[in-house]
Amino acid sequence: MSKVTTFIYMIIFMFAAPAWSDAKKGIEQPFIIIFGDSLSDGAVLGDRKGNNNWVKAEGRTEQTGLGAPITNWPNDKPSTWVNFMTEGLFPGENAMGLLSQSPEKLSNVKVLNAAFASAETGDNFVNDKSAKAYAPVEGQCTNYGDFGQYSCVPGAIKQIELASKKVPDWKMKIAAVALWAGANDILNNVGKLRSIFGENLDKSDVFTKELEKLELKNGNWTESSFNQFFKDLAGDQYDTLHFSNPIKNTRKAVDILVHDKKVPVDNILVIGLPDMGKFPATAVSPAISTLLTLLSQGYNSLLQYVTLRSDIKKGLSFVDISAWQQRQTKDPAWVQDALKRNCVSEKQQELCMAGSMRSSIKKPYLFFNDKHPTVATHKKMWEEIKRQVESTNSQSIFTRLIKNASLSQ
């Protein structure tokens, strides 16, 4: 081999080594980051609270106090699907929250939970202490937290920014990322419409006409038209009331992860919305229930188009949790009238504390309160997420970790 050839090989190796090193770190030092809202904001090591430790949720007792996770407390252990994921993939480990972690403490962390209850999808903060639909906090928030008269809840894009300040660049590049948000954007948008039309929003003629237009779309959504329903109803107040566009924001969040943070596309998991029209909270209004079902379906179909069919994001995983949700409400092993029953409205606090079981028929509740799942449901959701990821994306770190965990059991 000539000296020139040897020199060329040395140059190639020098430039190739960092990429090989990062890939090796991804296998040897798996690291998962979670971004999202109350569906993911779960209890962390050393505490029973999530990142949003001030939120006041329906059904929380004096014993359980304030803060996420917003669910029941079986065996004094409140959990979201993130806790079940952590226990399943890394036995003996605990998810760590964004609140208490400094950069130097993250070197050996397997799961960093950066999700906040009440969060939307945007790059701003919202105030979840507001009596109205949560509004962006203008100029007051530089960090997350409870500031007395107002709070600062970071949206999913803002969560990425905040986490990046604590996570080293090399660790972001080998991270597996799960993003599950969008429900609060839509629910808050409906709340903003109520501030315009009043509590009889669903009975107004203009609402009925716009809902009929939405139904005629028959699943034919475009990204630009997703919020058209809200724009047409809100008119000039669309911008002044800060209506959110979760499709645009989620796409932007994925773009930031891929292009700015250099997270491998195969390592990104986006979870779709549950059918919000089937939440107990919406049962009182068939029209609002129909609206939320349509918007949930539109959000999920658009996300799959934007994320899975884009050349740039071809390897990204998408989980459709709404199809699983529909199956659960028909499964005889679960409560048949789940849409009308939850731990709060049925005043079954003791049963919820004991494990979300109805003593008469020994079946789990799907919902803890009008919008949030029980621990039993969170466990089932993780099992479904795991099943879909493993069956669709063989290149993902999530898939490899799931398979490794299965082999070690």
Return the average pLDDT rounded to an integer.
79
Q: What is the CA-CA span between the terminal residues?
A: 50 Å
Q: Uncertain runs with pLDDT below 50, 5 residues or more?
A: 3-27, 335-340, 347-361
CATH class of the domain at 30-183 and 245-336 and 375-408: Alpha Beta
Query: What proportion of the residues form beta strands (DSSP E)?
Result: 5-15%
CATH architecture call of the domain at 30-183 and 245-336 and 375-408: 3-Layer(aba) Sandwich
Helical content (DSSP H or I, runs of 4+): 40-55%
Identify the notable features of this structure and list them briefly.
10 strands, Rossmann fold, 6-stranded parallel sheet, 14 helices, 4-stranded antiparallel sheet
Can you summarize this structure?
The protein is an alpha/beta fold and 409 residues long. 42% of the residues lie in helices and 8% in strands.
What does this structure look like?
This protein has 409 residues and is an alpha/beta fold. The protein has a domain at 30-183 and 245-336 and 375-408: Rossmann fold (3-Layer(aba) Sandwich), CATH 3.40.50. The chain has helices spanning 3-28, 81-89, 156-164, 169-173, 183-197, 205-216, 228-234, 237-240, 246-260, 286-308, 321-330, 349-354, 375-392, 397-408; strands spanning 32-36, 96-97, 111-113, 125-127, 135-136, 145-146, 151-154, 176-180, 268-271, 317-319. The protein has a 6-stranded parallel β-sheet, sandwiched between helices. Strands 5-4-7-6 form a 4-stranded antiparallel β-sheet. α2 (81-89) crosses α13 (375-392), α9 (246-260) runs parallel beside α10 and α13 (375-392) crosses α14 (397-408).
